[in-house]
Amino acid sequence: MDVPAPRFRRIAALVAIDADEKVALFQRPESDPSHWALPQSSVRSTESYAEAAARVAERYFRGRAVRWGSVIGRRWARPPDGTSAVRLEEHVFLARIGSPMRSDPFAADRPDLTARWTPRAVLGDVLREPHSDRTTDLVDGYLDGWLPAGPITLF
């Protein structure tokens, strides 16, 4: 008897930080007006998480210098619990983005997205789960220098 593969989705998310230590968030017009999200994408079967993060940076921040951070947040997929829910595994990459981004839609190929730079002090209030508290801790730890370089597990 063949056992089907578990429903599993790999995500690469990007915490893009500007010179003023604000974080880029995006909103789609069909979203709840209070729903802002990190730039992210599914990881293709032929690429690594890092390659997917580079693709996300190019897609959202085309033409801007990207300096990758030394810390990577990892949110591991939970074991199956008997539900049909898709299991998510996510790696969150930190990057410094050059030149400020405008607040209005900015890419000709993505007119459906609205962007904003959010001060890190209110990041937890603006993001929704699973990115709220742990992303704020990740950003604060990275920018304040109390997280060591390398991967860190996010719960």
How would you sum up this structure, described in words?
There is one protein chain. The chain has 155 residues and is α/β, with parallel strands linked by helices. The protein has a single domain, classed as Nucleoside Triphosphate Pyrophosphohydrolase (Alpha-Beta Complex), CATH 3.90.79.10. The protein has three helices and seven strands; from the N terminus they run βββαβββααβ. The longest helix has 12 residues, at 49-60.
User: Order of strands side by side in the largest beta sheet?
Assistant: 3-1-5-4-7
Shape: globular
Structural class of the secondary structure composition?
Answer: alpha/beta
Do you know the CATH architecture? Alpha-Beta Complex
- Distance from N terminus to C terminus (CA atoms, Å) equals 35 Å
What Rg is obtained from the alpha carbons, in whole angstroms?
Answer: 16 Å
Low-confidence stretches: none
In total, the number of strands is 7
Q: Order of helices and strands, N to C?
A: EEEHEEEHHE
* Total discrete domains: 1
Note the total helix count: 3
Strand content: 25-35%
CATH superfamily: Nucleoside Triphosphate Pyrophosphohydrolase
- Examine the coordinates and then state which fold CATH places here, giving the name of the CATH topology: Nucleoside Triphosphate Pyrophosphohydrolase
What integer is the average pLDDT? 81
Largest sheet: 5 strands, mixed
Helix percent band: 10-25%
- Can you identify the CATH class? Alpha Beta
Which terms summarize this structure?
Nucleoside Triphosphate Pyrophosphohydrolase; 5-stranded mixed beta sheet; 7 strands; alpha/beta; 155 residues; two-stranded antiparallel sheet; 3 helices
